[in-house]
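Need Threonine dehydratase's 3D structure for a figure. Predict it.
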Amino acid sequence: MTQTARELLPSLTDIEQAAKVVYGGMAPTPQLSWPLLNQALDAEVWVKHENHAPTGAFKVRGGMVYMDKLAREQPGLAGVISATRGNHGQSVGLAAARFGIPATIVVPEGNSREKNAAMRALGVSLVEHGSEFQESREHALHLSQERRLHMIPSYHRDLVAGVSTYWMELFKAQPALDVVLVPVGQGSGMCGAVAARNALGLKTRVIGVVSAHALAYKLSFEEGRKIESPVSTQIADGVACRVPDEQSLAVLRAEVDEVIAVTDDEVMDAMKMYFIATHNVAEGAGACALAAALQMRAQLRGRRIGLTLSGGNVDHDVFARVLMRDSAVAAGALQAPVQVLPLQQRRTA
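Structure prediction for Threonine dehydratase:
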């Protein structure tokens, strides 16, 4: 029997159980409202800083929950394997190391050097194969059978339960948000937002964000069926998805209000904006939500907005080029007139 979208999502009890595991390995991350972002978007903006998580990205939460259950249910496991562009692999590597389970991760050739180095530092056995994520995932499936390793998917209910904990933090701190924007790679972040919103009974709109150079989820959302689409993004590798996951797509179609596409130029503008406005580093996928908010500025004016800075793992040379490029959007954040309070108001403010 086909599961409904809500049946695919973790319940409030599932998320609360996942939180016990997550907070055994990390502290909650902050949600902050930055004046320059509020000014740039003419809205009340709350940024969820998952770039402050132990591996620099939200994925670590899902990895801890998945591996905790796997280690209890399958003691003596020979090893695990998965495919990634980086953040999922770091999550798996950190969690597997805690349980003494060998981890193999397959990445595309030419993957981020610094993400690769971070995975190796966690004890991961790294395999480079394929020109993009889907080819890496198919090779990981082949190796899992050949080497008798447990294949960790990019999307799973337990992964979503872990990821949902960061959305619970945001929604409990700011329950009056009108809308949240979330990047969609393989869908765990988006599904986590939906699961937490539903668990708390909120009416917050959820907007998914994809790369304009990786449109699989947007096209599938609009057409009502699974559609593959080529990947050509050069900056947002965390959302470089060619083939949508069936389960996360079902949730997207049933529970998400809208899907926005952002170009690489818009993403780089947002990366630079984040640094100017908050002095936080955002990787390409981590800046997608802000890129979409800037694109939708007119519609979002005066609203309460939640943005996820979902990861900060960008190679230093790439980030240097982003900071050096001209960006009228980012420069505009510094151009608003300064409001000087009269002396009496300054004394009592």
